[in-house]
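Postdoc handover notes: sequence design on the structure in folder B. Input tokens:
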């Protein structure tokens, strides 16, 4: 599904790189709790002096966890300012040089010029541009590469390999942007990257008694990449978006939504491994069928696990959100199973936000 203005064809998410305080421990957490499998490593043993990276994978989802080895480092600076968070959303393209040229001539600020990295397994061409906050997009062209991940990485094969939990691919990634910046970044994705706006919600759609936000969903023309963008809106109290921006010190990736074909099994396994999820009030389930119509699942297991359901004209979806996975209330995850639905669970927003507000109240940040 391409359009005339598809000057930036994207094949999918290549990887997501987190800058973290301790990559070894973060990798252990994502393997143990989320079922990621060890894939590749780069560090002192491979000749890097300033950083270490562990690469983990589940289905088509690849996370790179990178930590600084020296205090005077942009990685260390990033962690000091933001806590652990997403630095790079890497996009898999056929031509990284052309992707850079097309986006920079439309106004993207360069992160790094196109470069080719080689090893015995071939070459990877990459380039990078800035987006909201300190987040960057890196274009990855790997058609001439046969290695495990990227040049400079070696296969990582530890003895410890807990089984996966059935996560398949990145469904979407949500960015929180600062006050008044929503339209700037909507225009950026439209004008600079050729994305289209799929959906828009304003504070009438997404509000509770206390808090509100605005959200617009930008997507590549083939719909492989979907980026909802959130901006805080004024409410009686502080919204979760405002809380995120305060603790992250600016805009950044709020959550990664990961798809599964069996959300009941995936979530039950995640819970058994210590992943904590937000709970909506029990009353949510009393009116569920009335609201969404008939579904394949029975209500009780959904209620027990706290899984939410929403319907659109194409079908329905099941979704659940983790609590923040760090001490700062910033990054969290969504687990989603789509049964036809192409939307993002608008019908769940109010119930979800009320449960988030209960958590914020406990943290004293509402």
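Designed sequence:
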């Amino acid at each position: 599904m391409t359009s005339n203005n598809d000057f930036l064809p994207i094949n999918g998410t290549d990887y997501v790189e987190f800058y973290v305080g301790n990559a070894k421990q973060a990798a252990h957490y994502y393997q143990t709790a989320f079922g990621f499998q060890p894939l590749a490593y780069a560090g002192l043993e491979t000749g890097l002096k300033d950083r270490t990276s562990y690469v983990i994978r589940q289905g088509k989802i690849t996370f790179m966890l990178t930590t600084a080895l020296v205090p005077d480092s942009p990685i260390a600076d990033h962690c000091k300012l933001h806590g652990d968070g997403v630095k790079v959303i890497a996009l898999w393209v056929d031509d990284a040089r052309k992707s850079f040229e097309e986006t920079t001539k439309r106004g993207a600020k360069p992160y790094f010029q196109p470069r080719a990295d080689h090893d015995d397994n071939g070459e990877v061409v990459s380039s990078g541009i800035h987006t909201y906050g300190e987040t960057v997009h890196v274009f990855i062209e790997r058609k001439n590469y046969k290695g495990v991940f990227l040049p400079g990485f070696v296969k990582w094969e530890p003895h410890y390999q807990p089984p996966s939990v059935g996560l398949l691919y990145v469904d979407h990634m949500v960015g929180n942007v600062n006050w008044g910046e929503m339209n700037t970044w909507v225009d950026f994705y439209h004008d600079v990257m050729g994305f289209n706006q799929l959906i828009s919600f304003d504070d009438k759609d997404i509000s509770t008694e206390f808090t509100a936000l605005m959200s617009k969903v930008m997507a590549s023309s083939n719909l492989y990449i979907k980026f909802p963008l959130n901006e805080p809106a004024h409410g009686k109290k502080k919204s979760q978006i405002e809380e995120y921006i305060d603790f992250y010190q600016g805009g950044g990736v709020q959550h990664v939504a990961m798809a599964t074909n069996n959300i009941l099994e995936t979530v039950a396994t995640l819970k058994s491994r210590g992943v904590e999820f937000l709970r909506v009030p029990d009353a949510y389930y009393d009116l569920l069928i009335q609201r969404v119509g008939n579904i394949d699942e029975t209500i009780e297991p959904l209620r027990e696990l706290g899984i939410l359901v929403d319907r659109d004209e194409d079908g329905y979806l099941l979704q659940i959100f983790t609590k923040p996975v760090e001490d700062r209330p910033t990054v969290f995850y969504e687990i989603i199973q789509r049964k036809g639905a192409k939307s993002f669970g608008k019908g769940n927003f109010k119930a979800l936000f009320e449960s988030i507000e209960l958590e914020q109240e406990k943290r004293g940040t509402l």
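Context for whoever picks this up: The two ends are 43 Å apart (CA to CA). Don't rerun without checking with the PI first.
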